[in-house]
Please model this.
Amino acid sequence: MPLTRTWTPGYPLDVRATTGHHRRGTGDPTMRFDADGSLWRTSHTLDGPGTLHLSVRTGTVEARAWGPGAAWLIDRFPALLGADDHPEDLTTDHPVVRRLHERAVGMRLGRTDRVWEALVPAVLEQKVVGTEAWRAWRYLLRRHGEPAPGPDPALRVPPRREDWALIPSWEWRRSGAEPVRMRTIVRAAGMDVERGIDHLTSLRGIGPWTSAEVRRRAIGDPDAVPVGDFHLPSVVGQTLIGEPVDDAGMLDLLEPFRGQRGRVVRLCERYGTRPPRRGPRVSVRDYRDF
Model:
C-alpha cells in the first residue's frame, strides 16, 4: 500500500510549470505527466528507491508514494512544488519582466534535494543537443536503473551514486555518451556531492554551466544562471530587448535582477520569445558505433 498525504498550498500552483524542467525529454523514464496533469516521479532517496505521484484536486495536492523512499518523498514533496520559494522577492519596474512575472503566477522554483540526480543528466547535456543527451539518459536508466516501486512498470529509478561508477565503458558507448562525459560522471561518483553543491566546480569536468543547472533543480536557487548555454542568451535577449545577445550581454541584462537572475531566466525560458531560426539545426552526434 502506498503512503498518502494531502497538502493545500497557500498559493496558486501550476504543477507542470513548476516541475517540468526536471524532466529530461518526453521519454524520461524517471518522470511523466499524465493527461490529467498529474505527475509521476522517481528518485533514489537517502532511504532507498521511491516513486511519487502527485495530483491536484480543487486546489489540494494529493500525494501517494511507494517503496523504501516513500516516506522521504512524502515528507519533501511540498518543497518540490515550491513551498520554500519566494517569488515575491522579484520586484521590478522592467515592463517585460513584470508582465512575465504576472503571467507566471502558478510557477514556483521547487527543489528536489537530490544533487546527484540533477548532476548526472546535466553532465550528459554538456555541449550537446538535448536529443542526444536524453537518448543517453534513457538508455542508461533502462539498462542500469531499477524498476520503480508502485503500479507503473515503465518507470525507472536512477542508480545509486556509487553504482554509476560500475557501468561498463561499452554501455556508455552504446548510450551515445563519449568518454569525456563518462569520465566526468565516474569521477564525480566518488564524491559526496550532496554535501558539496557549493563546490561542484572544483570537480574536473564540471564548470559554471553544469553547476548552475544542478543548483536550479536540486536547491531551487533563484539566482543560478547557466552561462555557456547554446540557446539561453538568445532567448533572454530576444525576450528582454528584442534581439539575441551573447553570454556577456545576457549577464548585463540580468544584473539589475541579481539575487533573482535565475528566476528571470526561468521566466524567459517558459514564457519568453525565441529568436527566429536563421541557420541549420545543430546535428545530433552518434558515438554508438565508434
Notes: The domain at 3-218 is CATH 1.10.340.30 (Endonuclease III; domain 1).
